[in-house]
Automatic annotation (TrEMBL):
Keywords: ATP-binding, DNA damage, DNA repair, Helicase, Hydrolase, Nucleotide-binding. InterPro entries: PDDEXK-like_dom_sf, PDDEXK_AddAB-type, Restrct_endonuc-II-like. The keyword DNA damage applies. The lineage of its organism: Bacteria, Bacillati, Actinomycetota, Actinomycetes, Frankiales. This is PD-(D/E)XK endonuclease-like domain-containing protein.
Length: 347
């Protein structure tokens, strides 16, 4: 396994982006996701089993114990009480400009690949922003209240345009043909735990060594410091584990693009790496299940508390959590059946 951080990624044709030297894997970069026409399929729908209803499993008769996505796993690791508020209590959270901007930029990058290859330019991406924002408003009209006036809205849209410019500094989409975009994936492990989530982009190529997969994730924040880098890479390994279990192929490369400061992380996993990830997921679920059975959801204060909407209910800030829902005591599976997060405020 190799992890690399740098300031720019070579384009798919192997040429450097923004004057940076091409990486040693430039030839592989050209093969993964590139085609003579640059055309690719949209990855609507699920890989493998398809989205299952709460309580269902991928295999008939298989025991089902609960479900977990990378974002909720990260919640529990950072603060079990935040996980409880989101999954058990299902407390509403107000929309934030950062998270909404991330969702909008993800939507633009998905739609960008609907354009002919030659048309995937920075200008075209900016032109897709108004429609993406209009679609968000149609689904959630309350988002308009985030901006007190037109000037605040324009400043926010300008920050989204800057993030799109960051994407083009890292990659040339004209030479890519993604196999899937915003791809929902899920798989039920032998233990009965259902893993689920959305992959921002999946690139595929047929090579002399067989099928090669590359998982790409866009983060609209800045690259994390060493203290939080492991959480981001765990998310990528989580997706790699899902794809390996579903398709029987270990992804050759995992890439995280940080559009906020135009940097990236790269991981090349192997089977032992993904087996270790599976063991970690199982151990994490055991801890979640123990908290679920005992009602012991502890707050873990950290620098991330500044982003949390639940400080008024948190004992670490003098608050009192609401009583646990009565249904929690029924002993059924603990199911995060909300749509898996496509974008988080931190990403």
């Amino acid at each position: 396994m190799t992890t690399t951080a740098t300031g720019a990624v070579p384009r798919a044709d192997g040429q450097p982006a923004d004057g940076q030297p091409a990486s040693p894997d430039a030839v592989e970069d050209a093969a993964l996701g590139a085609s003579p026409t640059g055309e690719g399929a949209s990855g609507e729908g699920a890989v493998g089993s398809g989205p299952a209803a709460p309580g269902d499993a991928s295999v008939p008769g298989q025991r089902f114990v609960g479900s977990l996505s990378p974002s909720r796993a990260a919640d529990f690791v950072s603060c079990p009480l935040k996980y409880r508020f989101r999954v058990v209590d299902r407390l509403p959270e107000p929309p934030s400009p950062a998270a909404t901007r991330g969702t909008m930029v993800h939507s633009v990058l998905e739609r960008l690949f609907d354009l002919p290859p030659a048309g995937r330019t920075p200008e075209a991406a900016v032109e897709l922003l108004p429609a993406a924002w209009a679609d968000l408003l149609a689904r959630e009209p309350e988002l308009a209240a985030m901006f007190p006036d037109g000037e605040a809205l324009e400043a926010w849209l300008a920050s989204a345009r800057e993030l799109l410019a960051g994407y083009f500094a890292l990659e040339d989409p004209r030479r890519l043909a993604p196999a899937a975009r915003e791809l929902y994936v899920e798989h039920v492990l032998g233990s009965g735990l259902r893993l689920r989530g959305y992959v921002d982009r999946l690139d595929e190529a047929t090579t002399p060594d067989g099928l090669a997969l590359r998982v790409v994730d866009y983060k609209t924040g800045r690259s994390p410091g060493p203290a939080f880098e492991g959480t981001a890479l765990f998310q990528m390994r989580f997706y790699a584990l899902l794809l390996w279990r579903i398709r029987g192929v270990v992804p050759r490369e995992l890439r995280l693009y940080y559009l906020g400061d135009r940097t990236w992380l790269r991981v090349t996993p192997d089977e032992s790496d993904l087996l270790a990830t599976e063991r970690r997921v199982q151990a994490l679920w055991a801890a979640i299940d123990r908290a679920h059975r005992t009602g012991d959801w502890r707050a873990t204060p950290s620098k991330l508390c500044g982003w949390c909407d639940h400080q008024s209910r948190c004992p670490a800030f003098g608050g009192t959590p609401p009583p646990l829902p009565v249904a929690v005591g029924a002993g059924g599976p603990l199911v995060d059946d909300a749509d898996p997060a496509v974008c988080e405020a931190a990403g």
